Amino acid sequence: MIRSSSAFLLALLLSSAAMATPRWGTEAHDRLAAAPGAPATPVAITLDACGGAFDASLIQTLVDLRVPATIFVTKKWLDHNPAGTAVLLAHPDLFELEDHGTSHMPAVIGKDRRIYGIPAAPDAAHVEAEVAGAAQAIRTLTGRAPVYFRGATAIYDAQSLQIIRAMGYQVAGFSVNADAGATLPEADIAARLRAVRPGDIVIAHMNKPAGATAEAFAATLPQLLARGYRFVTLSGARLQPV
């Protein structure tokens, strides 16, 4: 009976793990391609603004240290954070806005599908609208069309990737997940940032000020700068899948 109960518990745990794993697509991973003749490949910081609030402390750290970042914004975040948006727009030399979707819907098609608990796009038309709505909002604010798209959860299926690319956008992956959706403690985020290497594309979040992302960046970025790291936005960069 004990063996039977143990087997049942193991099967339940394995089943739960499988259910928690996205089965409907793949996560996009990229690094910066080395530029011919460049002394060292830089690092790109990318910050997602999915929904929620504005992490003013994180952005102020970047401003104070003169560290540029590519900000992936949803239209939903822009609509609810006009003051935060104004701060980003006030520093065009540091921050560029790119497309994170209209309502933070994953770029995976299927009415019955959920990625990390978020409902997927019911059909192709919803994927197109998810990309186009945020793109138009960015054009209205900045006068420039976004080049990159990063979908909610960074999980994509083949059909959605085809749609996004046909619309003229490049999917932006990453190589270092710094804060796991702003859920990690400061020490863990700082450790991941200290392990960054030239060519890495870092993903973190600027929409959860209650998290520890701002504190970890404030503690770690000066160390990386002291080690000679150079930071760039994705504008003009060439991404290399990994």
Automatic annotation (TrEMBL):
Protein name: Polysaccharide deacetylase family protein
Domain NodB homology: 41-232
Keyword check for Signal: yes
Short name of any one Pfam family annotated for the protein: Polysacc_deac_1
Signal peptide (residue range): 1-20
Lineage, highest ranks first: Bacteria, Pseudomonadati, Pseudomonadota, Betaproteobacteria, Burkholderiales
Organism: Pelomonas candidula
InterPro entries named in the record: Glyco_hydro/deAcase_b/a-brl, NODB_dom, Polysacc_deacetylase_ArnD
Source species, domain of life: Bacteria
Entry keyword set: Signal
Gene3D superfamilies: Glycoside hydrolase/deacetylase
Keyword Coiled coil: no
